[in-house]
Amino acid sequence: MQPRISMITLGVSDLAASVRFYEQGLGLPRMESPPEVAFFTLNGSWLGLYGREALAEDAGVSDEGAGFAGFTLAHNVASEAAVDAVMAQAIAAGATLVKPAQKVFWGGYSGYFADPDGYLWEVAHNPLFWVGPPDDDA
Fold this sequence. Notes:
It is a single chain. It is built from 3 helices and 8 strands, in the order E-H-E-E-E-H-E-H-E-E-E. The chain has helices at 15-25, 52-59, 80-92; strands spanning 7-12, 30-31, 37-41, 46-51, 73-76, 96-103, 109-114, 120-125. It is α/β, with parallel strands linked by helices. The model has no long low-confidence stretch (mean pLDDT 89). It folds into 2 domains: 7-59, 2,3-Dihydroxybiphenyl 1,2-Dioxygenase, domain 1 (Roll); 73-125, 2,3-Dihydroxybiphenyl 1,2-Dioxygenase, domain 1, CATH 3.10.180.10.
């Protein structure tokens, strides 16, 4: 297996609301796709949104479950100010603030928000090393 993640697909309860959050609220570029799914271009991978029930059915598992999913998604940026800007953008788009951005034990600066379906996103600045593609914005 090659060391990469090609796509992350989130099972969502309301596709239209999630598309609005990611496309209009966070400004992710949406690709053309069939009406029952939405794809967004990321730097080197893609984000997919698909109905929670349909995604569970595709995987052959139950769609029931609540609480912490056991993982978070991370968006690394170049500065503490960029963390604050992305967090503010997400909250303005309808995200729920989970943990305000702050200095953290590992030497960086990060915060967490939850998207409309409760998926946790960490927005982080790591001054020790860059964790992402070269980029001059958030």
